[in-house]
Amino acid sequence: MDPAPRRPSMADVASRAGVSYQTVSRVLNEPGIVRPDTRTRVQQAITELGYTRNRAARALKTTRSSLIGMLTDGSALFGPAETTTAIESAAREAGYSVLLTTVGAHDDCEREIGAELLGSGADGVLVVAAHEGMVPAVAAVARSTPVVAVSAQAPRAPGVEVVGVDQQLGALQVIEHLARTGARSVVHAAGPQDWFDARARLEGFEHAVELHGLDGTVVGPGDWTPRAGYDLANDLVREGLPDAIFAANDMMAIGVLHALHEHRLRIPEDVAVVGFDNTLGAEFQVPSLTTVSQPFADLGRLALQRLLCLLEGHELPPGTPSTLPPRLVVRRSTRPERTH
Has UniProt tagged this entry with the keyword DNA-binding (predicted)? Predict the structure, then answer.
């Protein structure tokens, strides 16, 4: 029987590159102090051998695991999924691995989820899809580990830093656009109010309609799904349609579009529709959906940068924002803006 394959070691890399063990260590940890030709030889040997760093051994030496915990609720929604992907990519670029942990609806958060993350040896924790149901687990972890939440508002847990996209600004951009198209009445199909982002979009809507003197009404809350948007739109058809419907996310907006099509209403001539998130496929709806795009890739990098600064005791570079601006993407589900 052939012996089991052995994982390549730093000593193997040193032998292949014709350098010392210490030189390989410098290339891995402080590459800038190694001569370029030597660094190239070591990196080539690493590639040829398929060497990967032993994080457990490194943690014993440095008390740092290069492991980031990521706490989510397992949501398949576009925004949380895109944010999670962006953070994983940014962490990999920074030399960190990510341990993804999901908070289920009926989990014993404090004992099981918090203990799992802390027991993993994660250097810090990022929270995605922040809502009220995640607060107990967040609070349990934040007692002993740096935590950054990707959210419009801070979870009610001490010691938690927050980065996010300005959801209120996104709602303001929607209302400003609708006002310039001539809309005088707007209904906001709100998202679930235990979600911090949904609250912020609602608050932004209420402020914006007052600022622009529009007739604003809130219906719902819905649960982020097309069915919720569909049901809310059917209720509006029976009760009387506004000039425009602003759905809390694109999934709800898709349900709104479907209900309006069933009633043979013209979009945007009879009623305009706006979503939020710029979900993959929003531009292929009929008509293409006006929506708010969030900079998820930048958000992932910002969240990781904030966490690494906490871990290393550094301040963020001057001018680094804690909140990123969204961008309104105007398509054919809203009327053209007036030029006078």
Answer: yes
